[in-house]
Amino acid sequence: MFSDKDTAHFANLETPFYYYDLNLLQKTLSTCADAAKVYNFHVHYAMKANFNNRVLEKIRATGFGADCVSGGEVNKAVEIGFEKGQIVFAGVGKSDKEINDALDQDIFCFNVESIQELEIIDELAAKKGKKTRVAIRINPNVDAHTHHNITTGLDENKFGINSWDLPLCAETLKKCANLEFIGIHFHIGSQITNLDVYKNLCVRVNEFAIWFEERGFVVKVLNVGGGLGIDYHNPDGQIPDFPAYFKIFNDFLEVRPNQEVHFELGRALVGQCSSLISKVLYVKNGKKKNFIILDAGMTELMRPALYQAYHKIENISKSAEVVVKYDVVGPICESTDCFGKEVELPETLRGDLIALRSTGAYGEVMASHYNLRENVNVAFSD
């Protein structure tokens, strides 16, 4: 991905920094939009994946909506210029202030995750003399076959309303005069690479849609979530197979006339468009381990420490003449501040530039000031 010209340019920038390839981002967004348009599917971007302003502006310009999981994300979406009628507010723990602010913004919909939340939104909407749209997030008990920490659709997870609570949910909806039920919502997990998982989801969506229809509800929206993964091992120019992804839902969802199918994609749209560029501070060669100590740490990229996540690591200052195995670590005073163990790299020296690839999702947005670290820098390629 990186040319000699790129490396020379990076040498003049203060490390560590996130480098965004906006051309790849645009190609990814356009490929997704074209694939969704075939079936008239609606895509909302999951803002939690990345809320860098320039990234968001490109996503908005593509015509996607915004899927938000906090009041701050709702406000950010409005600030960037997403249509309010395309902003959805999800999240298992919405505060009263967040709900009130979203009601004032007249967003498209709240995705509601508990019966008590239904009652609270109804109460707050009543105080404002408003009626607001809601969709019910259902926990479908579908295994996403992904990392345990990013699975969200099993009975053991905190997200959504469980199937045995749906009768009470339906009764509550009918009592809430300030709520307009518009549909059902699902999200089973993240970094899903086995598309067959979505076939199982479609079966459950069909069953729950029928369940609500049989009780007199009109299901206008089927929101099937997102979770489509990326290939962390082969990042160069890689764009997810959006046509295959959307075809699964076209083939297996039972969509009624005038019913809309909504998606909330995040990582699949932005994951490959960024790399974290870091400089080697020190090389420690030992009898059992060789360490490369970078100026980037878990404060700049949390995923390896949090999920034991894999990111491809490259020395972009030199080619592989002599290959050495290194543990690639950061400067933070934590043993978990490690990006990779036994990573095969060219013999590396102080001052070499290291690229941690596929960091466009859950990279910059999860950066912290732990150890009083400064804000991470950002650079762009147009």
From TrEMBL:
Cofactor(s) the record lists: pyridoxal 5'-phosphate
Keyword check for Lyase: yes
Molecular function via GO: diaminopimelate decarboxylase activity
Protein's UniProt keywords contain Ribosomal protein: no
Orn/DAP/Arg decarboxylase 2 N-terminal domain sequence ranges: 34-270
EC number per UniProt: 4.1.1.20
CDD domains from the UniProt entry: PLPDE_III_DapDC
Reaction equations catalysed: meso-2,6-diaminopimelate + H(+) = L-lysine + CO2
Positions annotated as active site in the UniProt record: C333 (proton donor)
Record GO biological process: lysine biosynthetic process via diaminopimelate
Protein name per the record: Diaminopimelate decarboxylase
Organism: Pedobacter metabolipauper
Lineage, opening ranks: Bacteria, Pseudomonadati, Bacteroidota, Sphingobacteriia, Sphingobacteriales
